[in-house]
Specification:
Elements lengths: L5 E6 L2 E6 L9 H16 L5 E6 L22 H9 L5 E5 L2 E3 L1 H8 L2 E4 L4 E3 L13 H9 L1 H8 L5 E2 H7 L4 E2 L4 H14 L16 H12 L7 H12 L4 H16 L2 H16 L17 E4 L3 H12 L4 E4 L3 H20 L5 H9 L1 E4 L10 E4 L5 H14 L5 E4 L6 H5 L8 E6 L8 E5 L6 H13 L3 E5 L7 H18 L3 H11 L5 H8 L1 H11 L12 H7 L12 E4 L3 E5 L1 H14 L8 H21 L6 H11 L9 H8 L1 H15 L7 H8 L10
Parallel strand pairs: 2-3, 3-4, 4-6, 5-7, 6-9, 10-11, 10-13, 11-12, 13-14, 14-15, 16-17
Antiparallel strand pairs: 1-2, 7-8, 15-16, 18-19
Bound molecules: (2S,3S)-3-hydroxy-2-methylbutanoyl-COA (T1G).
Length: about 700
């Protein structure tokens, strides 16, 4: 046990307990034991009239050590440490900085007073890990700030900045840095004022059953399919009627029940998978990134505008190049309108919006891009158009400036070859809307340099994105799997299922929309134009469904034309299926000699989801994706795969590989070779290994 992670010292007549357990002072076993030992010292130190609990490093305790979950728990448990703090006979002050989250805030709630520096944030994000606060958060926070405000933090996942936490009464004072000194001064004032311990547990709870019912109703839609958020509401509800000690016991029971669920395993897996995705296995850690101080975007369409806002939102100046002055002005006006909308919806202050807008400069001449360190092209999805853009950039920007393409499908190797410096070309595939969606597929072409990757991966984090590296193939990781998922949806339509039935089955499985509704949202024509450009059709797939193409040939593109697979009124509201689909599908089935039949939801889900899992395994075998968890992060953050299922590859393990492989073999017999189990799955089956055993 590393017994130096927690130290005790005295400053005047204040005992100071300090934890130093990088990177985030997680409350692992050594820290818990260390705090207990330091408390013994502080309580037996007669010259210490008050105690300060603080942390060194970048943050106060950022929670329990998630990597300890699933391992045999070791005493002292966090709840014991916190009860000890609360029952101290000397006043205890918590000194908060960085992100006091989960068990970190619970430690602070066990203390009698809390001070923080201006940059501190507090929160109880446990439901995002499939659990509930398990060390008093659901019992003490309602006592401190009332049920309604506590539910916003615990269920809403609200992270409170210091000023808001002070206003709400979570913290007693915002102090200057260094925060520990501020806390020691605060404690000295308590001593001077003979103010003693002030346990939260002794306080009553301000709230009512209607707060609880309101929360259950309000979060029902947001947490559709989840368990933990509703168990957390149960725990907070108990605080209304149950003394603290019993409430803590009930909370612990609910915590353990939640922690034993697949949802908890899936969300904790996703937590680490997201951080793992940022690491490129064969990229030397010491590779120096290129400085990125000035950026540029070429093309002011929907994606170009969104990408420019991503840079501006992250504090980077960006030049947005358009083909003409009119187009330039129209683009800037559209961006200003987006920011206005955010201000009117209260998501941004006017000052912040103006500040961000001021970082975006419109241009019409490539020469205005000479100073750019990173340029993202987001022009029309046509290879020759993009090649010309890259060649023109070669002539004006520095030879080591990075050129990124936002293509969704095109061959990034071919685009890189259009530059005299192919090593500086890579893909940065943003998802629409670019300034909202967190996923960024970073496409590594054969020539892409380590410097380019070492620059873009950490930059993505600065842009608030979750980067996942992908090799070059048609559709990279996400869209390649999406194609087989949609292929199966189209075939199920041929065979007799309706679009409503298919979409509902997938919706019930947990995705926010089914494959037909989502194409209507994005525009059926996006795929249609891509298939036409690549000549994709019956030649490649004897069962190819032309129904989407036939709708597009009639300008029925979905929501944007008011009709697609469904009919819409007032833009987004579907008023039912497009009757044309019910004509075209049986006609196509007849043409292809396919017998139509009743199809149940299980088959729909299996065929759509298993097809993409199998394709994911092929992506791993081909080295396009580094690890299964990267594929999961792509689908969780780019395609709305339900996080409580962990992503398609994690889900495959919950289905179990042997069941998956035998089902794939059945489907192969029924539908043909495209259902052949991926060699990787066959190997894992033979070795009785789960997919996630490959996550390194
Ligand atoms: N446990 C273990 N490791 C953690 C960790 C944690 N709680 N938090 C971060 N790490 C690791 C992370 O994997 C990464 O490692 C490194 O620290 C830096 O993290 C009883 C049970 C604090 C806001 O949910 O939200 O308390 O990849 O890259 O972007 O009720 O980390 O470098 O090897 O994310 O600056 C509740 C989780 C736990 C907070 C910092 N707490 N952490 O963000 O750095 S449950 C949380 C975060 C709980 C109690 C319950 C963020 C951060 P590596 P990072 P960052």
């Amino acid at each position: 046990m590393n017994d130096t992670v927690v130290t005790y010292r005295r400053d005047g007549n204040v005992g100071v307990i300090t934890t130093n357990n990088p990177p985030v002072n997680a409350l692992g076993h050594a820290v818990r034991a260390g705090i207990m030992a330091a408390l013994d010292e502080a309580l037996s130190d007669n010259d210490a009239k008050a105690i300060v609990v603080a942390c060194d490093g970048r943050t106060f305790h950022a929670g329990a050590d998630i990597s300890e979950f699933g391992k045999p728990p070791q005493p002292p448990f966090l709840g014991e440490v916190i009860n000890r703090l609360e029952n101290c006979t000397k006043p205890v002050v918590a000194a908060l900085h960085g992100t006091a989250l989960g068990g970190g805030l619970e430690i602070a709630l066990g203390c009698h007073y809390r001070v923080a520096n201006a940059g501190a944030q507090v929160g109880l994000p446990e439901v995002s890990l499939g659990i509930i606060p398990g060390a008093g958060g659901t019992q003490r926070l309602p006592r401190l700030i009332g049920v309604a405000a506590a539910l916003d933090v615990i269920i809403g996942g609200k992270r409170l900045k210091a000023a808001a936490a002070h206003e709400l009464g979570v913290i007693d004072a915002v102090v200057e840095d260094p925060v520990t000194d501020g806390a020691i001064a605060f404690a000295a004032n308590l001593i001077a004022a003979a103010q003693g311990p002030r346990p939260i547990g002794a306080q009553s709870v301000d709230g009512s059953d209607s707060d609880i019912e309101e929360a259950r109703t309000r979060y029902a839609r947001r947490y559709r399919g989840y368990n933990a958020p509703f168990r957390a509401i149960d725990a907070v509800e108990a605080s209304l009627t149950t003394p603290l000690a019993e409430g803590l016991v009930l909370e612990r029971k609910l915590f353990e029940a939640c922690n034993a669920t697949i949802e908890a395993r899936a969300l904790q897996y996703a937590f680490f998978a997201e951080r793992q995705a940022a690491k490129i296995k064969d990229l030397p850690k010491e590779t120096p990134p290129r400085a990125v101080a000035q950026t540029a975007v070429i093309g002011g369409g929907t994606m170009g505008r969104g990408i420019a806002m991503v840079f501006a939102d992250a504090g980077l100046p960006v030049t947005l190049l358009e083909i003409s002055a009119e187009a330039r002005d129209a683009t800037l006006t559209a961006i200003a309108k987006s920011y206005d909308g955010m201000v009117s919806r209260g998501r941004l202050t006017r000052d912040v919006a103006n500040d961000r807008l001021s970082r975006i400069t419109g241009a019409t001449d490539y020469v205005d891009l000479t100073a750019a360190d990173l340029i993202v092209e987001a022009v029309f999805e046509e290879i020759d158009v993009k090649k010309e853009v890259i060649a023109r950039l070669d002539a004006v920007v520095a030879s080591d400036a990075l050129i990124a393409t936002n293509t969704s499908y095109l061959d990034v190797n071919a685009l890189a070859a259009a530059s005299a410096h192919p090593q500086r070309v890579l893909g940065m595939h943003f998802f629409s809307p670019a300034n909202v969606m967190k996923l960024l597929e970073v496409v590594r072409a054969d020539a892409t340099s380590d410097t380019a990757l070492a620059t873009v991966m950490p930059l993505a984090k600065r842009l608030g994105k979750i980067p996942v590296v992908s090799g070059v193939c048609h559709g990279f990781i996400g869209n390649r799997m999406l194609q087989v998922y949609q292929r199966e949806a189209n075939r199920l339509l041929q065979e007799g299922a309706t679009i409503t039935q298919i979409d509902k089955a997938i919706f019930d499985f947990g995705l926010p929309m089914g494959p037909f509704a989502v194409r209507d949202l994005a525009g059926i024509d996006v795929g249609w134009r891509m298939r036409k450009a690549f000549g994709i059709g019956r030649a490649q797939d004897a069962r190819y469904s032309a129904v989407p193409d036939l709708l597009c040939e009639r300008d029925q593109f979905g929501q944007k034309t008011g009709v697609g697979f469904y009919i819409y009124e007032g833009g987004r509201k579907s008023i039912g299926e497009n009757p044309l689909v019910a004509e075209l599908a049986p006609a196509e089935a007849k043409e292809l000699g396919i017998a139509r039949r009743e199809i149940d939801d299980t088959e729909i889900v299996e065929r759509c989801i298993f097809a993409m899992i199998n394709e994911g395994a092929n992506l791993l075998d081909e080295g396009i994706a580094q690890r299964p968890s990267d594929i999961d992060i792509v689908w969780l953050n780019g395609y709305g795969f339900p996080a409580y299922r962990g992503g398609p590859m994690f889900y495959a393990d919950t289905v179990r590989i042997e069941k998956l492989v035998s089902r794939l073999k059945d489907l192969k017999k029924e539908y043909g070779p495209e259902w052949s189990p991926a060699p990787l799955l066959a190997r894992l089956h033979k070795d009785s290994k789960p997919l996630t055993s490959l996550n390194r």
